[in-house]
Amino acid sequence: MVQAVGASNIFNIRRTPVNSCVNSASFNSGNVLTAQKKLSFTASIPVFLNTSLTDSDRKKYTYLLDFMKNYPISQNAEGLSCSKQLELLLKNGKLLSRSKSDNSTTLDNLYSIATEKRAFNLNQRNLISNVLDVLTNPRVVSQTFGDIPISEQRNIITSLNIDDPAKTNPSLMNVTASGTCAAASNEVNLADKYPAEYARWVSKLSSEDKALYLDINLSSISKNPLEAITIINLLEAQKVSMDFNKVKIKVNTDENAYIRAQIQDKYWDKGERNVANVLVQSAIMQLGSQNTYNSLIDARGGKFNTNSQGLIEIEKTFVESLIKDKEITSLVYQKIDDDQNLLGYNCSFDKMKKHIKDTIDSGEDVIIGYVLTNETSGRTASRYYNPKADGKPNKIINGHEITIVGYKYDANGNMFFVCVDTDDDNINFVEYSADWLLPKLHHAGYPAQIVAADEEEIIKNSQVA
User: Fold this and answer.
1) Is residue 148 domain-shared with residue 196, that is, in the same domain?
2) Are residues 172 and 64 part of one domain?
3) Among the three residues 309, 327, 347, which one is the final residue of a domain in this structure?
4) For 344, phi and psi rounded to 5 degrees?
């Protein structure tokens, strides 16, 4: 049966062909509420009274203020000008936070975007605005691909390699329901918890080098260095250098990501992915899919390919471990048979709650994958499900990845999870009741130490037919 997947037991996974991402907007029910929680912005203060600004920082900050002067307020900015966004990020500490990889600050990376030439002449001010939007409000991250104007499609088709599927079938470029939910959820987490690193990803991927490098502790992949190396080789990450403590990994997008980026640079519409989203999600998809992703048609290959879209659980967990430079344990909570029928659970719902709550309390987000079934009775009943498609209840029909960023209780003590869903056309938080979400919870990734006490039990239970 499906087992818990952490760095130490990645080889025990039995591939489960559950779609990793679908357009889930149509499945929102009365149990899905628009959260009332909103970001609040304090009154502005003179930024140069902030003593944490060095002379170099002040120079870069002033340059950015001037560079973005008169830039139109973004539709994703909740009425904030770029200067107000910069001020907010300065006051909340995100602007001067540092990347683990190279110690650069968010400010350093924004300054690099402004002062260094961008690949394919991507608009520097658009890119900076994109980063500011995401860092001030990670809820705006979207996985919705934008449309490609017919005139642009003709130029794209002419430029494609002869073996690109879109060359002979241009309709493949019309992506309506993308499979980048796992990548987008990782992007939300990256922006929410590692702002300097997020800005570095956008800066490096949009630079003329079109690549960035991650310095990763092997212990973040497995406590056993030899097993960590095997996992890196299995997932075909691009190693630049490695010893028995650390590995340097090259991260880049596929070339078609820049076609998407250029289209969004010129034709972005509200609700679609911005250029920063395109580059970061494409790089994550490439890193997770053994370098087989095609951004133009949102399709991937690779040795773990059970569906042409999205990332499967072990790929998502591997990428998450690299982004956080922490060992991530992915717990699989559901028992699923070979016909993709949900048979039961590997631990109690109370333990699931505790895992999520403890992780949120530790300061981390939780990226989860949930499934929808065709059942017409039971705790996940829905009038929208197709009953007994294969003669059995609980047939899994779809799956989706979202990010849990908080939790709350109502007056009756019922627990709700505050989430970011990158595929619901909603830049607000959504709240899912624990009673609604937990029966659907297939897997979730946690810092290894938080769930270590329960991992062995869940693995054991998953092996019982």
Assistant:
1) yes
2) yes
3) 309
4) 170, -155
CA-wise closest residue to 318 among 400, 241, 404, 251: 251
Residue 46: inside a domain, yes or no? no
Q: How far is CA 69 from the centre of its chain?
A: 31
User: Please, what sign has the CA dihedral across residues 263, 399, 189, 219?
Assistant: negative
Which tokens in the block code for residue 92? Answer: 């909340």
Same-domain pairing of 14 and 92: no
60 and 200 part of one domain: yes
How do the pLDDT tens digits run along the chain, 465 residues long? 333 333 333 333 333 334 455 433 333 232 333 333 333 333 343 444 455 789 999 999 999 999 999 999 999 999 999 999 999 999 999 999 999 889 999 999 999 999 999 999 999 999 999 999 999 999 999 999 999 999 899 999 999 999 999 999 999 999 988 999 999 999 999 999 999 999 999 999 999 999 999 999 999 999 899 999 999 999 999 999 999 899 999 999 999 999 999 999 999 999 999 999 999 999 999 999 999 999 999 999 998 877 888 898 899 999 999 999 999 999 999 988 888 888 889 999 999 999 999 999 999 999 999 988 876 444 445 555 454 445 566 778 888 899 999 999 999 999 999 999 998 877 889 999 999 999 999 999 999 999 999 999 998 888 865
Radius of gyration of the chain (CA): 22
| Cα–Cα distance measured from residue 263 to residue 275, given in angstroms and rounded to the nearest whole number | 9
Number of domains in the chain: 2
Judge if 285 and 326 occupy the same domain: no
CA–CA dist 231, 238 (Å, integer) = 12
Q: Is residue 70 part of a domain?
A: yes
Give, as one character, the DSSP assignment of residue 399.
E
Across 186-216, b (16+ Cβ under 10 Å) vs e yields: bbbbbbbbbbbbbbbbbbbbbbeebebbbeb
Element (DSSP H or E) covering residue 202: helix 195-205
Domain extent for 338? 7-38+316-462
345 and 419 part of one domain: yes
Report the amino acid identity of residue 405: V
Are 428 and 302 in a shared domain? no
Assigned domain for 356 exists:
yes
Kindly report the pTM of this predicted structure. Answer: 0.86
End-of-domain residue from the set 244, 274, 309: 309
Q: What distance in Å separates the CA atoms of residue 285 and residue 298, rounded to the nearest whole number? A: 9
217 burial via Cβ count (<10 Å: 0-12, 13-18, 19+): middle
Whether 380 maps to a domain, the answer reads yes
Which token pair is 295?
A: 């951004």
CB-based contacts of 30, cutoff 8 Å, min separation 6: none
Residues forming beta bridges with residue 246, ordered by sequence position = 217
Same domain, 369 and 387: yes
